[in-house]
Amino acid sequence: MFQLKPLSASAIPSALAKAERYRLLNEPEQCVSICEDVLRADPDNHAARITLVLAITDGFPTDVRSAGRAMELVATLPSEYERQYYAGLVAERRGRAVLGRKDHSARAASEWLHEAMRAYEKADAIRPVENDDARLRWNACARTINAHAELAERGDQRSEPVTSE
Q1: Residue 93: phi, psi to the nearest 5?
Q2: Most buried residue, 15, 38, 72, 106, by most Cβ within 10 Å?
């Protein structure tokens, strides 16, 4: 088993810039690795936590097994707004990952998207001034659901998202 080499504190800013570039290059595994290194060197690094959540969810179309890790990170975010917003993002991306599969479960996709919308509504209620990010994400979920009749929720019955997509 290899021992991981520690990242020096002075290298953190450039490591985070590299992580963002890997996200933009659609290489979430590389981004995840870098963010984990940053968090080993600086466990309270907010930018690394956010970038790691995003990178993990970038990988959902092929692998949702790390969703638990994403939610662990979300739970450590400092504000209730961020916890709700990023919980919504994790749920939304899980729903979109399910929807993108050839053999997708409309029920699972719908439940994840509706879960995301509930989290975005909570975030929107406590959003910082001039921050409509939660509304933008809520609208994106609504458009997806509106475009796919099979995703519409039946009545007011709500259930927990299906975790075995």
Answers
A1: -70, -30
A2: 38
What are 28-84's pLDDT values in tens digits? 999 999 999 999 999 999 999 999 999 999 999 988 899 999 999 999 999 999 999
10 and 41 in contact (C-beta within 8 Å)? no
Give yes or no for a contact between 41 and 12, defined as CB atoms under 8 angstroms apart: yes
Work out the burial of residue 97: count CB atoms within 10 Å of its CB; fewer than 13 is exposed, 13-18 middle, 19 or more buried. Answer: buried
Residues 78-128: tens digit of each pLDDT: 999 999 999 999 999 999 999 988 777 889 999 999 999 999 999 999 999
Q: Are 126 and 155 in contact (CB under 8 A)?
A: no
Q: 41-50 — which CB contacts under 8 Å span 24+ positions?
A: 41/6, 41/7, 41/8, 41/9, 41/12, 42/9, 42/12, 45/12, 45/16, 46/77, 46/78, 47/16, 48/12, 48/16, 48/19, 49/73, 49/76, 49/77, 50/77, 50/82, 50/86
Torsion sign, CA atoms 90, 145, 123, 156: negative
